[in-house]
Amino acid sequence: MPPRNPARQTKPVSHSDVGAFRLYVRYVAISWRAQLQYRASFLLQCLGTGMITAGEFLVIVALFGRFKTLDGWTLPEICVFYGTVNLAWSIAEALARGFDDFGSLVKSGDFDRILLRPRSTVLQVLGREFTLRRVGRFALGVMVLTWGWTDLELGWDGARLLLVGFAVAGGVALFIGLLVLQATLAFWTVESLEVMNILTYGGVTTTQYPITIYPSRLRHFFTAVIPLACVAYFPIVAVLGHPDPLGTAVVWQCLSPTVGFLFFGLSLLVWRMGVRHYSSTGS
Amino acid sequence: MPQISVRHLAKAFRVTERSPGFWGTLRGLASRTTRTVRALDDVSFDLEHGELVGYIGPNGAGKSTTVKIMAGILVPDRGECVVNGRIPWKERAAHVAEIGVVFGQRTQLWWDLPVIESFELLRDIYRIPSTAYVRRRDELIAILRLEDLLDVPVRQLSLGQRMRCDLAAALLHAPTLLFLDEPTIGLDAPSKLSVREFIRRLNREQGVTVILTTHDMDDMEALCSRVMVIARGKLLSDGRLSDLRSRFGRERWLTIDLLNPDEPVRVEDFQARLVLRDGGRVRLAFDPDRVRPEQLIAALTARHAVNDLFVEHPPIEEIIAQIYQREGIAP
Prior knowledge:
The complex is a heterodimer of chains A (about 280) and B (about 325). By secondary structure, chain A is mainly alpha-helical.
């Protein structure tokens, strides 16, 4: 592409220096095109994940038809928890698919190629795939959240919307962090890493409900170790304006999604250790 | 200053040994037996700008370990390695922006994309200025005859076509140093020739330093003036191809076609060693310092009726095989 303005030719780097974000967008465009090449298979997979997620949700609705409340939480309230967590997870899964099946990259030796290119490894691994197949979970998350929100008449309250957005963003960061940690394990072992699914899928299934329904050990685990409660339970309690049965302060509830970003930052440090380990063992 | 300077490079790997079977796997979970393999053991060499060096050795000899260290993706245990004035693994991004790497067995192109789009993505990855990119791309397309391949998705290319595209992809950012790992593996004869011709031109006309690891001795003879032989992590030989010949390949081969294919030949009478007997065809290896070729021929023709004969250098494979044999390793 020739420079549009000849007067600016003295600075030839200006239009060729593709920054990290623009490169990422290029990767994403390529990934989407590749996925849409096989349209029938793509549509079926979207339908599949959508139906599975919808099925999971219908079970909850059915249970509520019988019990009305769960540990003091109503169905619309549960819907806000459920929607937020599933929204965050679906976005994270779509963004970080490249980390999710990272083991294959190490096994095939193609991680070498990533190291041979003058770009950050995280950017390149993220760029491998932005999967659209989980759009079903995403759609369900939006619908469930919207329904709960409307039913509770939470309205267009700026602070509430901001907080739920903050919770989703923190959740995405935390889930990506988990996927990065899972990928990092591949530097040490070629064994299957299904065990990490306990934390990701298991984490989603657990924290899509208010954590007050669980025994304290599980609550503590999802607050202190894998801090999913910080991006789901605590901020949503504040969004709902529901007094917290666990007795936390509103300030903590509003700020807790920050923990998701910290977790992500931590996972990047561990990732860097993993890359260093890889380049000292070569496998 | 040499472009690559390697001093006393050493690298060992710990290999986990697994016992076979279900119980072996189970035992492996509890306790692991590891074995240390010395992939590189005190390797030193220099490479000047514009050299075209062959790097050969049996599988597992340490070739790819050396290449990975020079490429900046593996950290050695001991020793120094400086490439283009940098320690490769300490400044990975800056280093890899100036080198090109082609793996014969793996493509770096995007499987589902037309070739040209892979090139454009690489332009963005390597931050190649547009004008330089266009010039370089067109040049490579012309030399490697890629015009008709540009819009074809990579998965539909033949192996030879893909290798040509991969060579172009590795050179878009105009690296001054190119690592080629088995670039002709699996290619048909015409593709091999065109790949070789391209490598030669790249080296002669553009002064790109090339390090070629290969099992194909024809590649070596056609391209490399200098050959490094490695086995068990040690450099066995480093020098001109002709020096390698004179050190290890003093022998000549005399091949004769006997008139009577069943006639026995007593090789030991001629101070020679039998290399091949195939019907009337007899190939003898001899040392020209001990028996002069004309003496040998005279002695042979005095005793046998000979249809045809010729003297030649043993091929490089033989020389390498001898080195390996001397070191007690199977190639």
